[in-house]
Design a protein that fits this description.
By secondary structure, this protein is an alpha/beta fold. It contains 12 helices and 9 strands. The radius of gyration is 22 Å and the shape is globular. It starts with 6 loop residues before the first helix and ends in a 23-residue tail after the last helix.
Length: 439
């Protein structure tokens, strides 16, 4: 049988519902004719308030580097990690450094004037350009061979409800911020259809049992194996969600509030659910571009699960001489690093649908921040830690570029996808082109 037809047409021919599309979107037997392009994926993960430099940056440059405490969770992925120091946010203009830090982080261009007042600096508004994730999304979506259902997905964990310059890092264009989805149940609904019952999540797979059986009967053995793996992953996720909903929280859960409560102490649970959904979205080829935002610039999460009662932002303002605060900030960044490592682990354990390696082989995770250090609010040495493969960067190294504009790194990421732009954001910070020595 010739399966080289559009996936939607395949479902229509079998009389199946559109909800089955996520389960056939990545089957090699239904791919477009011709040599398939290697899949390339990008995850940009954000955590706020800077780092403690002497417990974060490796002392060595090159392949023979050692992880400091904040980066220790990446030890299992050392040969697939690239630590990039000496990349700085040179963008100035309106807003304080927290605002410019997040608003210019992925756009590389100034904020518009506005009425959001920062910490003693001029007020500012939204970014005046698009973000690099959306730039690459648009590039991929133009090509039928790399087009996906959503193009990009924006995940969040405890991002404030209110929209302002401190809470948005992704932009589809000037004055067009994109709100991340920080409710895993809403993200699950986006990926697999809306749950009919908020009180008890109805199984997507139960609804699709008949359709999936028809699909299995029409595809080859390789596609059946991939389909089974995908449905198993979704089934496990449904079970995790149900378990989270029925866990005894020590108090009555209001009927109107389904799922894991959106509250500070549940950040680890929400993070895990969101990371699992992100991996699932890549497996189903719903998207190849994702962002993952922990809280917001000036984020003040209290990491009580680490025994830390103070808010993160407040701690980040403590001087270097406050050893207790610096130790707590180190542990906070180490926790964020465990989330990066968990994402890398999940991707490394998930086989590519075409059988060529794992999802991590074709995915680059970029972990970053809006500040280099919290108590100085510096935009120098913005943390950029890359994990995985997929863009042709030479991994297993620690690099230091001095103080180059971060626009050049954003351009380098685009070039990794074959998008050969010679400027991005403010062109004044693009001189010299892409960063050397990455590939």
């Amino acid at each position: 049988m010739n399966y080289h037809k559009s996936r939607r047409a395949f479902l229509k021919d079998l009389g199946l519902c559109a909800s089955a599309l996520p389960f056939v979107a990545n089957l090699p037997g239904l791919a477009l004719p011709g040599k398939p392009l290697k899949k390339q994926r990008l995850v940009i993960l954000f955590s706020p308030d800077g780092v403690v430099p002497n417990t974060f940056w490796p002392d060595q440059v090159g392949p023979n580097f050692e992880f400091k405490p904040s980066l220790k969770p990446l030890e299992p992925f050392k040969d697939r990690t690239l630590v990039i120091r000496g990349v700085s946010d040179k963008v100035r203009g309106d807003g304080d450094n927290h605002m410019r830090g997040i608003g210019c982080l992925l756009t590389g261009i100034e904020l518009f004037p506005g009425n959001v007042q920062g910490g003693g600096d001029t007020p500012a508004g939204w970014s005046s350009g698009n973000s690099i994730d959306q730039e690459i999304k648009a590039f991929l979506q133009k090509n039928p061979a790399t087009r996906t259902r959503f193009g990009s997905l924006e995940f969040g964990v405890m991002v404030p409800d209110h929209a302002d310059t401190w809470t948005r890092m992704c932009y589809s264009g000037p004055n067009k911020p994109i709100a991340p989805i920080d409710d895993p149940y809403q993200m699950f609904g986006k990926l697999y259809g809306q749950a009919k019952d908020q009180e008890m999540l109805k199984s997507v797979l139960d609804d699709l049992r008949g359709d999936l059986a028809k699909i299995r009967s029409q595809v080859g053995a390789e596609d059946r194996k991939i389909l089974d793996e995908h449905t198993s992953l979704v089934r496990e996720m449904e079970q995790d969600i149900r378990a989270a909903r029925t866990t005894d929280l020590g108090h009555a859960v209001p009927v109107v509030e389904p799922g894991v409560r959106r509250e500070n102490d549940n950040i680890p649970k929400i993070s895990k659910l969101q990371i699992d959904l992100l991996v699932s979205s890549f497996l189903s080829d719903a998207s190849r571009i994702a962002t993952f935002q922990f809280t917001n610039s000036v984020g003040d999460a209290r990491m009580t699960w680490l025994g830390i009662q103070e808010g993160q932002h407040g701690l980040s303002h403590e001087p270097d001489s406050n050893a207790t605060a610096q130790e707590k900030l180190t542990r906070i960044n180490e926790w964020y690093c465990t989330q990066v490592a968990y994402l890398a682990k999940r991707l490394s354990e998930t086989a590519e649908p075409d059988g060529q390696g794992t999802l991590l082989d074709n995915t680059l995770i970029v972990w970053t921040n809006e500040l280099g250090q919290g108590n100085t609010h510096t935009l120098e040495d913005i943390p950029f830690v890359c994990v995985g493969n997929g863009l042709g960067f030479k991994m297993g190294r620690s690099l230091n570029f001095g103080h180059v504009p971060h626009n050049r790194l954003l351009m380098s990421i685009a070039h990794g996808f074959g998008h050969r732009i010679d400027r991005f954001g403010n062109p004044d910070y693009c001189a010299g082109g892409v960063l050397p020595n990455l590939t």
